[in-house]
Amino acid sequence: MSTPFRQFQAFHATLQRGTVTAAAEYLGISQPAISNLLAQLERRTKLKLFERTRGRLVPTPEAMVLFDEIDTVVRGLDHVNQAVTDLQNQKAGQLQVACNHALAFGFLPNEIARFAKGRPNLTIAFQSQYSGKVQEWVTAGLFEIGLCEMPVRQEAMEQRHFRFETLCALPEGSGVADKPVLTPSDLDSYPFIVMGNDHMVSRRTREAFLSDGAHFRIRCHTDLFRNALNLVKQGLGAAMIDPFTLSADDGAGYVVRRFDPAVLLDIVVVTAKDKPLSAIGREFLDQVLPRMQAVAVG
Fold first, then answer.
1. Domains, the chain, ranges and CATH?
2. By CB neighbour count within 10 A (0-12 exposed, 13-18 middle, 19+ buried), where does 78 fall?
3. CA distance 112 to 105
4. Bridge partners, 221 (sequence order)
5. pLDDT (tens digit, 9 = 90+) per residue, 219-230?
6. Which residue ranges does the record assign to the HTH lysR-type domain (predicted)?
7. Angle, to 10 degrees, between the axis of helix 61-88 and the axis of helix 131-140?
8. What's the pTM value of the predicted model, to 2 decimals?
9. Which of 4, 56, 156, 171 is most enclosed, with most CB atoms within 10 A?
C-alpha cells in the first residue's frame, strides 16, 4: 500500500509541533488542508491515529509508533530540501550536528555560536535527541556529526570516546553535604533521583553502593539529567549529574560534591565511516574535541 508522502509530512508536523495550527504554519498550508491530509492518512492506513478531545487532536498509541517509524524518512526529505536551498543560494556550507540532551542545554549551543562567529554564510542544522536516535540520524546521513552516550549500536561509525566524572547534587540544607567528597556510606538510604535503572550512571552508582554495603534508595526515575537536577532543587533527593548540565545551570537551590568512587559517564562523538567529513565538519571537530578533552577525565 503506497501512502502519499504529503500525508506523512502533515502527520509528522502535527505531532512534532503539537497542534494542527502550528503544523499548518510550519508547512505553509491551511489548517483545513492539514486536517484533510490527516483524515486521508487514517482512511488509507485504517488506523485511528487521533482522538478528538475538546477541539484538540490527541495522538493514539498507534500514532506514536507510526511517528517513530517515519521520523527519519521525513527528516531526510527536509534535509534534502535544505541542501537544495543552500545550493540555490550558494551558501558557504552547512554545519550538521546532533547531540544527546545533556550537551544541548549549554555546551554545544555555545560551541556552535563560537564556530559561527565570523562565518556569516554558514547554515546550521542542530537537533537534540536520545542517544540511540542521534546514532540513527548520523548513519542515515541526516547529520554529519553526533554526540551521544555509549553504547554505540550502529555499525560503520567512527568513534571518539570521552569519559566524564559525574558529581553528586544534593538539596541545599540537606545536612549530608558537610564533606568535600561523599561516599555511599555517607548517603546510606538517602533518597536518589536516577536516570532509569538501565542508564550507565544509575547502574554504576548502584554498583558503588553495593560494593560499599550501603543501601541505594531510589525515590524518583526520570529521563534527563536536567530533569533530575530540577527535582534535586525541589528537595526530592540527590542525583549524579554530568558536568555539562551543571555548567549550564544557575547553581541555585543545591550543592555539589564529588563522589568516591567516581561515577563516570561515557560520551562518544560519532561520524559515518563510509562518508568523508566536509571541511566544515572537520573544522568544527577541531574546535570541539579539545574542549571536551579539557573536561574529560584521564
1. 5-70 (1.10.10.10), 91-158+267-295 (3.40.190.10), 167-262 (3.40.190.10)
2. middle
3. 12
4. 194
5. 999 999 999 999
6. 3-60
7. 40
8. 0.72
9. 171
